[in-house]
Amino acid sequence: VIILTDYNLSDQFKINHWTRAAGKKFIAADIFGLVGSVFNDFGPKHVVEDANGEACVEVYVEHIDKITGDVICLEETRHNLSDGDHVTFSEVKGMTELNGCQPRKITVINPAKFNIGDLSNLSNYKEGGKAIQVKMPIEVSHKSLTASIEEPEFLISDFAKLERPSQFHILLQALHDFRQKNGRLPNSYDSSDADQVYDLAQTINDRTKAKVEKVDKKLCDLLCFGSRGSLCPMAGFIGGVTAQEVMKVISRGSHL
């Protein structure tokens, strides 16, 4: 896993290009005062073996219908499974072919019943049994840093500020460009430096596919005025998220 912190965006592009070619995992983290980012690129074919990190569901069975393929949980216990989950079985009497069987994909019927498909070629069910969830590997394709910047996907967290993520997307690129050209971040509360970043942001906005209607000058100023700040809470949060992503990619868990 290659982890970058406080690198210029141009260097991040180069290293990310190399990691994709070499089959390595890439993480880049940045903090600019009260604004931070973490980017993951685990390649075009990253396998996730545990999508949620939770313990596998186990539920006792009351009946298995050979004709319909329906599994009814004991005393209508909630199974907490979802469509597309997979299960195997143990301790089933009669329909013993299910014990230790290859994982079967389920369709949820209701909170206490699910379907496991065709059972017509199996023995008749007698009693007992336990359904055990099996987590199946999922292949996830990650976009490169270049592609992600050109075609970003935003998760809206504040519906009162719908454009805020796309504004920061433009402004952070401009901040990187400023640092690349000047060898430093904007000076604290320096309006001249903030104006330079704003001009760079407008240039980026003119050429990018991920445009905003108008670059927010006030937001740009606030970002620039505090971009040199190194705050313990931000470092702790961004550092913690980054470390967690490292642990998850090593263990093939779910990611950002």
UniProtKB/TrEMBL annotation:
Pfam families: E1_4HB (PF16191), E1_FCCH (PF16190). Belongs to the ubiquitin-activating E1 family. One of its GO terms (molecular function) is ubiquitin-like modifier activating enzyme activity. It comes from the Eukaryota. Pathway: Protein modification; protein ubiquitination. Residues 136-205 form the Ubiquitin-activating enzyme E1 four-helix bundle domain. Residues 69-135 form the Ubiquitin-activating enzyme E1 FCCH domain. This is Uncharacterized protein.
